[in-house]
What we know:
5 helices, 6-stranded antiparallel β-sheet
Amino acid sequence: xxxxxxxxxxxxxxxxxxxxxxxxxxxxxxxxxxxxxxxxxxxxxxxxxxxxxxxxxxxxxxxxxxxxxxxxxxxxxxxxxxxxxxxxxxxxxxxxxxxxxxxxxxxxxxxxxxxxxxxxxxxxxxxxxxxxxxxxxxxxxxxxxxxxxxxxxxxxxxxxxxxxxxxxxxxxxxxxxxxxxxxxxxxxxxxxxxxxxxxxxxxxxxxxxxxxxxxxxxxxxxxxxxxxxxxxxxxxxxxxxxxxxxxxxxxxxxxxxxxxxxxxxxxxxxxxxxxxxxxxxxxxxxxxxxxxxx
Length: 294
């Protein structure tokens, strides 16, 4: 729902949040503002005499934090807080749009990414404190966020905006590189005790792929389960190791690489080739855990 800034200013003023940080913001926001004038200046105070902090072009999205009065909005633009003339910003309390990156700020606790903008909605993923996500919209005090191939919602109270270079994309893009390289080996033969370059057993395959990127991990599935850091199944990212256990006293008897969309790639003992399988069904029943390596 988008209306002119002048009409909405009075309606939203009661929801303004006081005491907001002057760095990357973490607070219930009024919504998304869209700049309507080329070269709109963001200033350090709600006045044309305030110093210019940044300049935004037509169509740029900003996070509107508060009605500052006198035809000014307090906004977050590129993880910097300042003021923009409300005459040149239209406000929507519910909208999709690129709003940059945000970091989960929960003092060490986890944050639920939900399927909708309410605590009653189902949990899509569980995010650790410090996780960096993409903010792709707003919905009445909730951020619409994207992370690890999932899109959901999280309260804006627990997301702090960060500069676009401080992103989870470094890890996620490296994980995607791991996946892309692993896919080049599809069709290679499974052979027990082998670790490449054309034949692999399951842990030989994962160790070979990661070695290509400069990571040395343990050689067996059971011992690879101690590499990296543990990750919940709901928070899997491309490149994570996924582990399985079947008819053994060991911690794990099989390992593969998660590729996204509930799929993983592995040196399979079912077809004796490197292939892609789903984490559902049989593999869901014997799944025992996952590890972030990157």
